[in-house]
Each structure stands twice: as C-alpha cells, then as structure tokens.
Amino acid sequence: MSSTKSSAASPVKQAFQIYAQQAEKLPPCQAQCANSGDIRGWLGIIAQHEKVGLTLDEAYDKAWEKLTELNPLPATIGRICPHPCEDRCARRDKDGAVSVNALERFLGDWAISRSLPLPLAKMSSGQEAESIGVIGSGPASLSFAYQMARRGYPVTMYEKHHLPGGMLRHAIPDYRLPREILDAEIERLLNLRISLVRNVEIGHDIVFDELRDRHSLLFLGLGAQAASELGIPGEKGPGVISGIAYLRQRKQRIALQTGKTVAVVGGGNTAIDAARSARREGAQVLLLYRRSEEQMPAVAQEVEDAKTEGVRFRFLVSPTRIVRDGDAIRHIELQKMQLGEADEQGRRRPIPVIGQTQKLPVDMVIVAVSQAPDWHGIEPMHDGYRWLRTEDDGKLEDNIWAGGDDRGPGIASKAIAQGRLAAEAAHAELRGEPHPGELPARKAVRAGAVKSDYYRDQQRGCRERRPEGEWLSQPELEIDRTISSEQARQEAARCMSCGLCFDCQQCFMYCNAGGFARIAEPGPGNYFTLELDVCEGCSKCIEVCPCGYLEARDSSV
Amino acid sequence: MKMAEKLQQLGERVPKRQQSLPKTLQDGSRIAVIGAGPAGSMFSYFVINMAEAMGLDVAVEMFEPRHFCHRGPAGCNHCGGIVSESLVQRLATEGIMLPDDVVQRGIESYTLHMDVGDVEIATPLMEKRIAAVYRGNGPRNSEPLDTCSFDRYLLELAQQKGATVVHRLVTDVHREDDHMCVHCADQYSQNYDLVVLATGVNSRLMETLESQTQEFQRPGRTKTFICEFLLGRKVIRETFGPSMHVFLLDIPRLEFAALIPKGDYVTLCLLGDDINDELMERFFNSPEVRNCFPGGTIPAQACHCYPRINIKAARPAYGDRLVFIGDSGATRLFKDGIGAAYRTAKAAAKTVVFHGVSAENFKAHYAPLCRAINNDNQMGKVVFGFGSLVQKSRFARRGILRMTANEQNQSDRPKRMSGVLWDLFSGSAPYTDVFLRTLHPAYLGSLFWNLLAGNLPAGMIRNGHGRSEERNHVEH
Fold first, then answer.
1. What is the per-residue pLDDT across A467-483, written as a single tens digit (0 to 9) for each?
2. Residue A32 contacts by C-beta under 8 Å, 6 or more apart in sequence?
3. B352 and B455 assigned to the same domain
4. What is the CATH class of A1-24+500-557?
5. What is the ipTM of this complex?
6. Please, are residues A504 and A544 in contact by the beta-carbon 8 Å criterion?
7. CB B187 to CB A508 under 8 A?
8. Which of A509, A511, A539 lies at the smallest CB-CB distance from B205?
9. Model's pTM, two decimal places?
10. Looking at the complex, does the CB of residue B124 fall below 8 Å from at least one CB of chain A?
11. Residue A543: closest CA among chain B residues belongs to which residue?
12. Is residue B160 part of a domain?
C-alpha cells in the first residue's frame, strides 16, 4: 500500500524510509478507568474549546454530555471515586496527574446548577416496547436503567428503602457526598422514562417470579448488603454493630448511641467511613486492622483524613473475644499478628504471634470486615456461591442480567460500568443486533511516545478543602469543595492528550514536504489530514509529535 | 563613534510626538526572537550585549518549542554541520568559544573523489581546520555521548546572557498599531516592540506570513538530502580519516556531495537542485561513493531527512519592527549557512540597537548586507556552473585532478587549484574571491597545462594511486 512515489524509490533509500500515519491510541487514564471513561475526550473539549470555536460554557456543556454517555452520576462519582485514572496519568511524574476527579465533580455540579438534561442515546429509535425491571437502585441499577431509558425502553425500578441510591445513599457519609447532590443526580435520571417503586422488598411485598412475569427483562442490582460477622465470643449483643448498619442509621439520622470509646474492626473504606463518622459523634475511635497499613484496601487519602480527624490506628491485631459486663461491653481482646506467606493474590497473610494478646477497654465495637449479597427473596437466582456468577457482560440467564456488588465487591465506577455493559448487551439482544462485544482493541500509547518535556510546567491544581478545624465541628459539611470554572479550565488544559492530536501544530509547521493540511472544520482531536503520497519518510513528525498520535506506518503493509 | 551617533539620536528622539511609540529600543523594550537556531541565538546574544553597552535593558524572548537535547530529527536543525575555521575564529572574537564537546571532529583535509581518481587536499596554512558539529543531539537512537548540540550550546549562551526561552510554537505574527503581536499554537499571545524572525526555511511560518501580509516574498527553497551512517569511531578513523570526502560526479542537478566524519557517524550531505529519488539512486550506485565505504557497500542509515535550503533571499527581509535573519532572510548559496546566520544576526542586532527598528532603519543598515550576500551568491552560481561543466567533462576532471595532485605533492608550489577547491568546499571565502582567483593568469596557465598533460596517457599514472591502495588495505 506504499505510495506510487515510494515504490519507485531506490532500494538503498527504500530501506530506511519511515512513513508516518495518524493513529489514535488508548490513553492510560481510560485504560485504568473502571468504566473505560473517555476522559481525554471530555478534557479535550474543554482544553481545546477555543480551537474548535466553542465558548467555555458551551465546552463545559459538551464535555458533560460526553462524560454522561457512560456515567450518569458525575457529581457523585467525582466525589467518591478513588480515581485510578490519575494513577497512570502521563503527567504524574512531571508535575502531578491531571485532577480528573475534581474535574468530573466540577462538570457534575455545573450540570446540576444549570439543570442540564441527560443526553439521549444517539442511535436510539426513541420508543421500545419491552418493559424493563430493575431490582435495586444503587449505582449499577441506576446505570443500567439510564442506559435502557435513553435507548427508549420503559424502565421500572424496585427499591427496598424509601430513598433510591443504594450504598451511595446509605453508606457514604454526608461529609463525602452531600445528599442534595445525590438527590439531584438521581432525580434527573428518573426524569427519563424510569418509574421508581419505593419500599418494595422482594420476597416480602412481591415475589421474584411475579417480577419476572411482569417484565420482558430483569436486572439484578442487589448490592452486598449483608455484613459479615467476626464470629468471636461476645459479638452478639448490644454495642456491636456492623459498619454498614452504623453508617445507614447515621445517614438516616436515626438516633443512635455511639459509645465513648469505639473500636472499628476492618481496613476497607466502610471501616474508615464508620470510624470517621463515630469521631463525628464525639467518640474516641481506634481502628483495628489485622494486616499492616500498606495492605489496607481503603483509599490512602481517606486514611490520611481519618488520621487528621483523630482516628487512631492499630495494625497487626485481630479481635478474639468481646468481654461484657452484663450487656455492656467491658473490653475487646486482641491477638497480635505478623505477616506470613503471600496468598494467591500476593497479599501477605496475617498469622497470630502465639502468646501475645492484649485487652482494650472499649464500650462499642463496629465490625466492618466484609459484605455479601442478601439473598432473601432472590433465592431462585442464588446458586449457593457467595456472588452471582454471570457472563462477562452481566448475563445471568435468558432475560436476566446483573451488575454491581452482587457480582463481587468493587468501586462505584465498576458498578456503573457493569450496569452500562449489561444494558448495551441486553439492548443488542432485544433488538436482534450483534453483541456489542469488547471495545475495538486500540493500541496503548507506547512508553516514551509522550514527550512530557514538550508540555509547559503547570502544577496540579491544588484541591479546595475546608480548614481541618471545621471538619469535626461541622460534622456533616462536605470537606472538599468544587473547583471554580477558571480552575477547571486550567486543570483541563494540563491534559497531555496522550495518543490523540490536540493541535500543537508541530507536524504541520515542521513537515518539510508540507504533508499536513488543516481541516476546514476541526473538532477536538481532529485538526490535520496527512497526505500519505507526499510523505518523504523522514519521521520528523513522528518524533516531534508530543502526544504519540503520529506513528510509523507498517512498511510491510 | 557609535556612541556619538547614539547620543545624537537620543537627542533627536526625545521631543518627538508622543502619540506613536518611538521606533527605537527603549529601556524595557520587548523583543521576540522566533526560532532559536544559530541565527536566533546569536542575535539574542548580540542584541543583549550591545544594548547593555548602551545602558539599555531590553527583554529578549526566544520562541523555540523544540528541545535540542532530543536525538534524531525532532531536536535537530538539519544541516551538514560544518563550521569553517574562519567562522570559529570570528566567533571566538565575540566570546563564543566552541567547546570540545560540541566539535565532533576537526576536519583537516578534503578528499576529492572523481571517476578519474581521488586526491586529498590538505588544509591551507592560514586555515588550520574546520569543525564538524551536530546541530541536534546526534542521530536518531544514537547512544548518549558526552557531546553537545551546537544549536543548544548557542542557545544556552544566549540564555546566560539573559534571554528567556519560551517553549511555544509560534503560529502567527502580525502588526498591530505600534507593536507586533505574536500568537502561539496554545492560544498564547503577546505584544512586542520588535519581532526577529529566525525560523529558517524548514518551518511553515514564513509561508503563513507571506500569504497573510503580502508584504514580502519568502525565500526560495530547494530540497536537499542529509543522512547519517553508523560505522563506529575505529572504522571511521581508518576509512575516512580526519578528512571530508567530496564528490565531483557526472550526475545532473547534483551541485555538491560530501561525507563528513563525526564521532561514530558519517554524515552524508547532498546539495543541488531538488534532490530526488532518481538522483540519490545514481549517487549511491556510483563506484566512487561505494568505494568510500568498507567493503564497498552502503551501510544502513541511522537517520535522514530532506531539509530545504534557501536559494533565494526573502524580499524584503525586513519591515517595521520586523526583521528576518539567517535562512529566513538571506544566506549563502549551499555553503556556510551558519556564517551567514552570524553575519545577519550581528547586522540586525547592530541596526536595532544603534539605529532603530523601523523599515527605514533596516533598509539603511541591514539590507546592504543582504544585498552583498545575494550578489556574492550570483557569483556563486557562476562558480557552481563551472563545477557542473567539470562534472560533465572527463577531460576537465583529469586536468583538475592532475593540477591539484601536483600542488599537494610539492609543498613549495603555489596552491592555486587547491585553494580554489578548499574555499569552494568549505565556504570559507566569498564566491567572488574564488571566482576572481580563477581569473588569475597563473591559475589559467597552470590549468591549461594540466588539462593537456592530464589527458595524455602517461599523466594518469601518478594520480589517486596511493589512496586506492590504502583503501584495499582497510578492506581486509
């Protein structure tokens, strides 16, 4: 396929020509994102808005539309996501990763403040007949319902509690996610053709098979609401509560008695949230974890914040007994642990140090060790395993799909991804279309292809937070603040656009052969055409391209 | 005397109308230099020096998006990388001393290759040697060596003087009332009292400006070819020696071809009128070229490009608050581009500091240099035209080979042909000088004799013998 010009070239010359081509690559942020979010895409709309003739406001609107094609809850996810996207950001080692999370949150709040509607699906006919039932209203269910509703299906969502949102509603404290934000995002979502049936518990108010008859297709977004117990003597009785129950009661503002000295057992995010919540009730809180700090699954920033708030940590201890004085808890007995051999996942297993125990005087114990789905009422779907076992796309059996924590624990972004992928596959099945399958495999950006020294230094926008002194004194107020429009513009401009043109114009300016031509109506990521026949094969453009978009054509083609 | 001029000007300047800004540099004047190749860097260096001497504090910003520390074409300014000794000396008088790690190799002789034989021309007494440098940071994928890019060295020199480097790509320059506005690809834009354009002819900026302003005509360009062969220091020392190998071959449109040893690499440089595939094919297939390489085969190329060169000056090379220097303005035909960058940079700096930044100032004090370069280039065309005649005539080649070889073998003889060739290859002397020397009766007489003698059967015995033997030796 080489050009007529190059085929006539001398053999000597032919041997070393490196012809260029334009090829979009998979950026590291998207590769890392649990929901495969097109982060570079929506950042690019903001960063390049002047180049494509958009005002900044229009750019924010458009960026929000692009973002919400995959995630209907950006204001929520922008607050709670541990943002793995930022971990591999090409900017990370230069002057700090782009604050994707803060930008997502900004766009979410932007849309709420401007009452932007969610975008309908582009290829949808608008009206489909099949009735869709969704059990649960957590992130996976909301995502599934959204993707079906925007494709034109009537969706009915069944929620056990009065308020929708699942774990987002019940387990995430207000200081991390204000309920007004979640309310606004869910309300906007329900404005699509989604009817919410509240206070319906499957197996209690309605049987599962009836729902099956009522709807053409069912989605199970049950979550993992059953908390595991420690299984130690003294656990049953007052003063011992699961992390999830404690958080739920606090969120529902049910009057609860938090002890003066509270031990929280566990090292995940629920444990941290429970510990910080208990601090807000004025308790002395000690978090007990059986491994070391490095092995804690909780988000590092949350752990830091918990420390700031005065939560104390004790690592390498495991509770063995809760000793009571009548009903009241007197103390908790701890077994000292040490790290042993690595398990299958490579995490070193904690093993007891024989003979080393201690007593810790506490009057309340919050157990946040792990959670599993509550199968009550869903027995027909439970095959005895801890989690639902589905196909990769979430298909459980004919016309039954599932997603979220009932398929195994994960971050909210992952639940949203599972809801979306299930909807895409279910839609294709209902319409008799080919399975959407995996995204077409795109080459990742080659290490070293992004030339970070091309980009001007600009420090990562610092996070806006309330002063630490106010954290506990105003316990429900959110700690982080949303960045300003100007900060968002600057932060988005830090994106290096790994693997996609951002109009740096170097190829255009430096190509000796004049092979690059401007596109008359450019769009983000789309600015130049490359005339392959003109290319002289010197590879200068490939080497000056700072983002790795230009690459060598395979000469064997 | 310059000071007197300046004082006189200052006296004139003060009472003038306040409405429009003066077209002279003031304290705090801002100068944008677009492109930080040798012309841009040397201009920045000179202008700060001269302004300082006048007690003026000017801000110089050099726009250069690329980093000369990158290897391969991305960090390179595409040229053969020859700095003649006369230029090395002239730079030294300016306080610019090329350090050892910039000079890849001192070139001590030229070896002229022709079908009729080859001859080595040793350095004339007055000119000790020339320096081979890398404009960028060496060829693509090359090993990091303890070497430094020539352009980067000059850039750092300008930075040390106080110029700022702005890593932005300039996409537009236009005039607005009393200032020039510089616009960049990242939407950055800023006003300046003077814009010095030093992008060279391998950037599209000149083209954009020409089509937008219709104020001037950008330089005429032609396509050349430069590549690098990795052979290793040892092989290069044995095969090429400290010599630049020049070819006089009967290939139409090829005006100059040279192999320049540099460290572990040899740079090939083909100049002429639109170097294309067919020409390159003929060049690589000619035995004179093949025989230069070990084993007679052309090795794989490590790095190559097709840079454009300036073959016709920009017209005019200035405007109000705007001046083109180096290849963007006027340069010498085929040779000594860095020397021309030095001369135009210095003349432009002098003009803006001691006279002003108006079109009239440039016309009076900068244009004469451009004109002189252009006129000399006209002579250069005549000289290269003779070269083409020689390329086509085996008869003439024999005569030249004989004359040069005899001059080289006998140290007491005046080296008329050697001198002409040396200056032609190195670009050390103006083309007009070279041309005038070829009109010298002694040169003509000697050439006539050698044409006769060289074309007699016996005349061929001596020529080129030693070198081919030597090469056979290396092949073992």
1. 999 999 999 999 999 99
2. A84, A85, A87, A88
3. no
4. alpha beta
5. 0.85
6. no
7. no
8. A509
9. 0.87
10. no
11. B74
12. yes
